[in-house]
Design a protein that fits this description.
This protein is an alpha/beta fold. It has 13 helices and 15 strands. Helix 1 crosses helix 13, helix 3 runs parallel beside helix 4 and helix 6 runs parallel beside helix 8.
Length: 377
């Protein structure tokens, strides 16, 4: 099948989303499909352009007018699909439903081209609480037109267990894994301390403040305690460090409890440098605050990457791929501080071979997950 994988932004070498998209495309190609990747980015000369792979299919120019045009003019996508025999368009939602996008997919349907839209998180309205006015206005426009846009789709792809989204049938898949990129956990630690890791481009729904608060209470109350370190790998914004409408700031909690020594910010790490931090840690932290954005069920990429490494981990949402697994420690989906004692008891009472954990998720490759979408439509 000839597929156009459509996104509405560019790529970054340090973005987990960019890596995920490329892995999805790879998964489709591994199933024998001819996949073209369409995206929007700046040219070396500073022009706003729509690309398919490395070829410019529309140059919008520069300046404010170009910025407006790229939001209004999707004709180049339609022409490319028709001229190149595209059979299916796989679009990744940018929470950007508009009349122009509805018009594009209406034309594609009339041309006999099937379309699906992936919703990265659902529901997503709660994620915009406290965001700047412009982003909340974009969400308002999306609310007006997203059901109409969904009506032009053959299906909506979701990482939840929902059966319908915006009135359209849903295809339920899991976030996938590219096992080639993820080495097996090789734990070795030279001291008696317990090291815990959380990897994310940190947002309030990750709930790391709950872990920091729990670490603070543990340090202030536990007698004869073991040293416990929380390693945060990834970007941390000002709103997470100093507080927002959603959660107390990391810096505030760290200062309150005097635990500067025990919360380590590594920034963004990749490759061998990331592996070194992982291999020092015995336990990992997934999301602890998805309830803050109104999400109960979700299949996050991070849970799967932890399992692929073979490191036990905790999270608070419902994830049908991992709920009940012996190497998973479920936390309450509320605002309570995370119990460090409970984590320590779990670590000390369970011994897991990394390869055994990794073997439980071999069916979660991107090749298998993306083929489920194609088989459904």
């Amino acid at each position: 099948m000839r597929i156009l994988f459509l996104i509405f932004h560019g790529f970054s070498e340090v973005s987990g989303i960019s890596k995920k998209i490329h892995n999805q495309v790879k998964g489709l190609r591994e199933n024998g499909h001819d996949v073209r990747l369409c995206y929007y980015d700046f040219s070396p000369e500073g022009h706003r352009c729509r690309y398919v792979d490395d070829t410019v299919i529309q140059d919008y120019g520069t300046g404010t007018l170009a910025s407006v045009r790229q939001r209004l003019d999707y004709g180049c996508i339609y022409r490319y699909c028709v001229d190149n025999g595209i059979e299916t368009v796989y679009a990744r939602s940018f929470m950007n439903a508009t009349p122009m996008l509805v018009h594009l997919f209406t034309r594609l349907r009339k041309a006999g081209i099937k379309s699906v839209t992936e919703i990265p998180t659902y529901p997503y309205d709660g994620e915009f609480v406290g965001f700047p006015f412009r982003e909340r206005m974009n969400l308002f426009i999306d609310k007006l037109f997203r059901r109409q846009l969904a009506s032009k789709m053959n299906a909506m792809v979701t990482f939840t267990d929902e059966k319908h989204i915006f009135g359209c049938r849903a295809v339920n898949i899991s976030n996938g894994i590219n096992f080639d990129d993820i080495p097996t956990h090789n734990y070795h630690n030279d001291d008696d301390a317990v090291h815990i890791i959380g990897v994310a481009e940190v947002h309030y729904w990750h709930g790391y403040d709950r872990l920091i608060a729990g670490l603070g209470e543990y340090c202030s109350q536990a007698a004869n305690r073991r040293e416990v370190y929380f390693h945060i790998v990834g970007g941390v914004g000002e709103s997470e460090m100093h507080g927002s409408v959603h959660a107390p700031g990391f810096a505030t909690l760290i200062e309150k409890y005097g635990i500067e020594k025990y919360v380590v910010f590594h920034g963004q790490l990749f490759g061998h440098e990331l592996d070194k931090v992982f291999d020092k840690c015995v336990f990992a932290i997934g999301s602890l605050g998805r309830h803050r954005s109104g999400i109960t069920n979700i299949k996050t990429l991070k849970n799967r990457e932890y399992a692929a490494r073979g490191i036990p981990f905790a999270y608070s949402e419902c994830d049908s791929d991992f709920d009940g697994r012996k190497y998973v420690l479920k936390m309450p989906a509320d605002e309570s501080p995370i119990s460090i004692e409970r984590i320590l008891e779990f670590i000390e009472s369970h011994k897991f071979a990394p390869a055994d954990i990794r073997n439980t998720v071999t069916d979660l490759s991107w090749k298998k997950q993306m083929q489920r979408v194609i088989e459904t439509i």
